[in-house]
Amino acid sequence: MADAIENVESGPVEALLATGAGKMQILVYAIIPQVLPEFITLSLYQWELNFRSATILGIVGAGGIGFELVTSMRLFMYPDMTTILIVIFIMVTIVDTISSYIRMKIR
């Protein structure tokens, strides 16, 4: 996110400074509009990554749906395992679809 702030174009900032705008006005009208799409995109990416990582962490023993998946595999409960895999697949698809929709609306 720091890279997004560093890459802010100086033109709008200089234009607002030339009109006598204060620091808060520069932040609201010049910096945030340039940085907000990048912040939202990075936040959505992190959300997707955390969702997928939660399953992996559960598999190695941290609990959650990954733990249920491993337990059903160890107990040879294949219908339960299949259901859990389907739920994970559906949830990852939903998260990805929502994220793609929000990114499309931002741009």
From TrEMBL:
<keyword id="KW-0472">Membrane</keyword>
<dbReference type="InterPro" id="IPR000515">
    <property type="entry name" value="MetI-like"/>
</dbReference>
<keyword id="KW-1133">Transmembrane helix</keyword>
<keyword id="KW-0812">Transmembrane</keyword>
<comment type="similarity">
    <text>Belongs to the binding-protein-dependent transport system permease family.</text>
</comment>
<feature type="transmembrane region" description="Helical">
    <location>
        <begin position="26"/>
        <end position="45"/>
    </location>
</feature>
<protein>
    <submittedName>
        <fullName>ABC-type phosphate/phosphonate transport system permease subunit</fullName>
    </submittedName>
</protein>
<keyword id="KW-1003">Cell membrane</keyword>
<dbReference type="Pfam" id="PF00528">
    <property type="entry name" value="BPD_transp_1"/>
</dbReference>
<feature type="transmembrane region" description="Helical">
    <location>
        <begin position="57"/>
        <end position="77"/>
    </location>
</feature>
<feature type="transmembrane region" description="Helical">
    <location>
        <begin position="83"/>
        <end position="102"/>
    </location>
</feature>
<dbReference type="InterPro" id="IPR035906">
    <property type="entry name" value="MetI-like_sf"/>
</dbReference>
<feature type="domain" description="ABC transmembrane type-1">
    <location>
        <begin position="1"/>
        <end position="99"/>
    </location>
</feature>
<keyword id="KW-0813">Transport</keyword>
